[in-house]
Amino acid sequence: MKTPEAPPLAPDCLPSDQVPAPARLSPQASSMDKNTDPELMPPPSNGGDPPLRSPDPVSGSAVSQELEEGDPASLSIPLETEFGTSSKLSPRIEEQELSENMSLPAEETKRPELGSGETMECVSEEPAPEDEEYLTWNYSFSQRPPFLSGSWSEFSTQPENFLKGCKWAPDGSCILTNSADNILRIYNLPSELYNEEEQLEYAEMAPVLRMVEGDTIYDYCWYSLMSSAQPDTSYVASSSRENPIHIWDAFTGELRASFRAYNHLDELTAAHSLCFSPDGSQLFCGFSRTVRVFSTARPGRDCEVRATFAKKQGQSGIISCIAFSPAQPLYACGSYSRSLGLYAWDDGSPLALLGGHQGGITHLCFHPDGNRFFSGARKDPELLCWDLRQPGHPLWSLSREVTTNQRIYFDLDPTGQFLVSGSTSGAVSVWDISEPEREGKPEPVLSFLPQNECTNGPAP
């Protein structure tokens, strides 16, 4: 669900004369690729295609090892452009060669007509100004949200399989999930949500796409300018253990491109965190003591290497999460060494180094105003709020239950009024953070238990 207060770099908030130029992934053949007979895989071009079609189901591999720190990333050799191809999805995915340009354009898009909460009691409609062509939807957490639908049969086919998070598409049209079977799944919203009549029962949701990774998935994210109305912007990035960064087509499930990073021994190393820049022109990837920046116009191994730790100073450890400010040219990095770093977007120069968490940082989120951001860590019960105008110490902290190393995501609604977080006990807490800053901290306006197991991915 989009609102007029969305970040200024969102695709539907940019005037047409300010939209960045399209970024295209150019084919560069690799001498290291095993597949020497690549197939043409042109991206969909018709904007009127139905949203997200389902290919044949693909079975995933068994649960893999948990993420561990390591992987030195001191890179001193020049990089060359390289990427690969695979004709099928296998337990250890071979790299995919591109024989045709892949387009990730940053074009102006239309807002979705309906959002996920339009038939929910916890969402209320406010009339939009006459000069606007879309509706503004605001959340109301005065009562527990009603259950609408879910997906459970999909994850019970393999033993010890469980969900590890979910993320809304930037246009609010579908949901991307990650699970222990190393499969990324995309779900469309139930069609009943688009009916004006009140629906009492909803069918169980089934994935429309499955994208199989070769090993434990470290991180995944949507292309920042994704819109279902434009298939050539519908892409997903993922990183898994001992594999390159993969770009998946969110309309077909095909592997479209790869970005490779190598350590000082010229060995392939996996990224632990991913984040597209707000304009979609760059992909920022976190490694041990390093952030590598790839251009989305050029898949392969060419990248800019930005060290976060040098001469025993800076941010050490694995860069576990990255987030961009929606209002200022900077980004924040979280590390498993329990530190937070602020860096300039253009050249990666360090701006500030913050500390305050008891565990390794697992998730970051900026407020739409661009001044505040929030951080959470593993085995750490605190959610910390930081203000860029006085970053020396947190403004306040919120309490949640996090007793494991699992990523427990949290998120803000599009207006920045409510902060929602899950917990290892399954409880979901909602805080109203719109009140003027005062002594103390916000108290939850709603807490409820949607399930009796870990809730790791609430996303309004």
Automatic annotation (TrEMBL):
WD repeat segments: 354-389, 412-441
Keywords: Chaperone, Chromosome, Nucleus, Phosphoprotein, Repeat, WD repeat
Extent of Polar residues compositional bias: 449-460
Pro residues composition bias: residue spans: 1-10
Main location: nucleus
PROSITE patterns for the chain: WD_REPEATS_2
Domain of life of the native organism: Eukaryota
Pfam families: WD40
The keyword Repeat belongs to this UniProt entry's keyword annotation: yes
Keyword Phosphoprotein carried by entry: yes
Localisation: Chromosome, Telomere; Nucleus, Cajal body
Quaternary state and interactors: Component of the telomerase holoenzyme complex composed of one molecule of TERT, one molecule of WRAP53/TCAB1, two molecules of H/ACA ribonucleoprotein complex subunits DKC1, NOP10, NHP2 and GAR1, and a telomerase RNA template component (TERC). The telomerase holoenzyme complex is associated with TEP1, SMG6/EST1A and POT1. Interacts with the chaperonin-containing T-complex (TRiC) complex; which mediates the folding of WRAP53/TCAB1. Interacts with COIL. Interacts with SMN1. Interacts with RNF8. Interacts with histone H2AX.
UniProt protein name: Telomerase Cajal body protein 1
Organism: Hipposideros armiger
Source taxonomy: Eukaryota, Metazoa, Chordata, Craniata, Vertebrata
Gene that this sequence comes from: WRAP53
